[in-house]
Write a structure and sequence with these properties.
mRNA processing, single chain, spliceosome, mainly alpha, 531 residues, two-stranded antiparallel ribbon
């Protein structure tokens, strides 16, 4: 984006018409060209600070106006292209360079450049009333026309150089690079003898040379090459004038807004002032609106919005912010926008005309950015706490021995924790995990390997119970079914009959018969007779 687009908001449509008045006198077609490129751009950039809050309300009207402007621009562009094709000389269609308006602006620029650099300190009142500021606005406005002139000249060169090298316009897309390449190749037949490395990248040079050796183009006539040569010189002249204007604007902006330029740079400062509508309008904006100035230009680029950052503008895309890591750019943008809002108010009342306040703020911003970039503080490694030097318990006796026995490691656990050198330990699987058995079951072999003996009950570790409670427990246990094992079965496997069903009453009947035999109720106990 050129600086001309940034300052178009500072002027009205009457100023645009005055800039292009000389071109309008030269021909109606040139006026259509400026309207299609510059006029539509001016109307789209004439935005004030308050419009940022109400932009959603005028979306529908804006779409209709944009569609009408695009239709008008397309029709004007088609008419311009027809005139370019029929023209015999580039200056017949590109008349801006010889216009009185261009010569007057260049003369005024040379006049103000010759003045003392301390002129900015003599500015009083509104900045917009200063004649040099008005010249800056006009100079930026005419750069739009210069860009359009370069496009027209580029079209003229392509149409007239196409018989010589028709593939060149697809290989070199930049208008100025195309003009330099045409100027260097000229009307030579052997393109391999032309050195283009100082104009184009090496990869492009190779493609151009290879394509030029196989092209079906013909040699231009003397009249055709003279027209192309003059058009290339005109393009170089327009580029030089544009560079002079931009250099002047950037140098003089330090006198119009010294503190603002010291904080963000002259290029971005010019864009912000142009988008806001001047320094006075920028000074009335809050910081939240300043940081999104130029948002529409950044987002409406006809590209995918997947990788675009939302709610950013000229400040975010300034060289200083883009040089920072992406994770702190939004934070830096918000911080810089707040300082820019203050700097615009200071420049509005002409305080600190030497820009000392702006340079001081810039240093503060850089220090804060360095603070943002510092790594987080390293966590301190805490030393282990000192062990408690409490006296050890040296109590002996039966109670102390029993407490130790409760938490003592059993022999089975000791064997499990041991491994014999050179002998593979057995493992058991359970719940998706394996557990090594160590030396448990090492002495056994065969199918019983790995089995362990059930732990023997240590009566010393058993809890004590009184005799009274033991009697009650036995009484409760006998009256319940707890005495019978849950795995007891009435089926017996015998080698004689196989599966045999046991009569549960047989044992009781056998006991009863024995009692009746010896302790029957028939009389006194009698010993059985000997046979």
């Amino acid at each position: 984006m050129s600086l001309a687009d940034d300052f178009l908001a500072d002027i009205d449509y009457e100023d645009v018409e005055s800039i292009t008045s000389s071109a309008q006198d030269s021909g109606a077609q040139q006026q259509d060209l400026y309207t299609s490129f510059g006029g539509a751009s001016s109307s789209n950039h004439n935005v004030g600070g308050g419009d940022l809050m109400d932009e959603d309300e005028d979306d529908e009207d804006g779409d209709l106006d944009m569609e009408a402007d695009m239709n008008e621009a397309d029709s004007a562009l088609e008419a311009m292209m027809r005139e370019v094709q029929s023209a015999k000389n580039a200056r017949d269609i590109a008349r801006l360079m010889d216009s009185a308006e261009m010569k007057g602006i260049l003369k005024d620029i040379a006049h103000f450049q010759s003045q003392s650099a301390s002129k900015g300190s003599n500015v009083s009142g509104m900045v917009e009333d200063d004649p040099e500021y008005q010249l800056i606005v006009k100079a930026n406005t005419i750069t739009v026309a210069i860009d359009n002139e370069i496009l027209v000249v580029h079209k003229f060169i392509r149409d007239h150089y196409e018989p010589k090298f028709p593939e060149l316009e697809t290989l070199v897309a930049n208008p100025m690079d195309y003009a330099r390449t045409v100027k260097r190749i000229a009307n030579q037949e052997d393109i391999t003898k032309v050195d283009l490395h100082d104009i184009l990248p090496s990869a492009t040079v190779m493609v151009v040379v290879v394509t030029g050796t196989t092209t079906e183009g013909r040699e231009l006539t003397e009249f055709e090459w003279k027209a192309c040569d003059e058009a290339c010189d005109l393009a170089f002249e327009l580029e030089k004038v544009k560079a002079t204007i931009i250099e002047y604007v950037e140098s003089r902006l330090t006198f119009i807004a010294p503190n603002l330029s010291a904080i963000i740079g002259t290029t971005t400062a010019a864009k912000l002032m142009g988008q806001a509508g001047g320094l006075t309008a920028l000074s009335k904006m809050p910081a939240c609106n300043v940081q999104v100035l130029g948002k529409d230009k950044a987002l409406n680029s006809a590209l995918s919005s997947a990788s675009q950052v939302k709610n950013v503008g000229y400040i975010y895309y300034s060289p200083f912010v883009l040089s920072l890591p992406s994770d702190i750019r939004k934070k830096a943008q918000k911080m810089i926008a707040a300082k820019i809002a203050l700097a615009a108010r200071i420049d509005r009342v002409h305080s600190f005309p030497d820009g000392s306040w702006g340079r001081k703020i810039r240093e503060e911003i850089e220090k804060k950015v360095e603070k943002f970039l510092e790594p987080p503080p390293q966590k301190n490694i805490k030393a282990l706490p000192a062990p408690l030097e409490a006296p050890k318990k040296r109590r002996g006796g039966r109670r102390a021995r029993k407490e130790k026995e409760l938490y003592a490691v059993s022999e089975m656990q000791k064997l499990k924790n041991r491994m014999e050198f050179g002998v593979e330990e057995q493992e058991v699987m359970g719940y998706g995990e394996s557990q090594g058995l160590g030396m448990l079951g090492q002495n056994s072999s065969g199918p019983g390997a790995g089995r362990i003996r059930a732990a023997q009950q240590n009566n010393r570790n058993r809890g004590k119970i009184s005799n009274r409670n033991a009697a009650r427990l036995a009484q409760y246990g006998s009256s319940s079914g707890l005495a019978t094992a849950g795995t007891a079965s009435s089926i017996a496997f015998t080698p004689v009959q196989g599966i045999e069903l046991i009569d549960p009453t047989a044992a009781a009947a056998k006991v009863k018969a024995a009692n009746e035999k010896y302790f029957g109720s028939g009389g006194f106990f009698k010993a059985p007779e000997k046979k």
